[in-house]
Specification:
two-stranded antiparallel ribbon, 92 residues
Length: 92
């Protein structure tokens, strides 16, 4: 597999590692999202223990306002974080 294919596989695997623990296996609840942020993106988000901050992130991600974060909404988060990291590391 190419590096990009490996990265895609890891994104899919990470999503499904947390989705479905509290309901629909194809979406993340607020609690599942919190666990994902803490365990997979802790270096970026810190411990993500601030309930108000988790609520804000969740609300911003839940584009269709259905009370869950689906795979597309999750990928949007990862893409945005990746873009911010790229800007940070390429600034001269």
């Amino acid at each position: 597999m190419s590096d990009i294919q490996k990265a895609m596989t890891q994104l899919i695997t990470a999503f499904h590692k947390y989705s479905g623990k509290e309901g629909d296996k194809l979406t993340l609840s607020k609690g599942e999202l919190k666990d994902l942020l803490q365990n997979e993106l802790g270096d970026i988000f810190g411990k993500a223990n601030d309930k108000a901050e988790i609520d804000k992130i969740f609300k911003n991600l839940d584009a269709n306002a259905d009370g869950t974060v689906d795979f597309q909404e999750y990928v949007t988060l990862v893409a945005c974080i990746t873009m911010i990291c790229n800007e940070f590391f390429t600034k001269k």
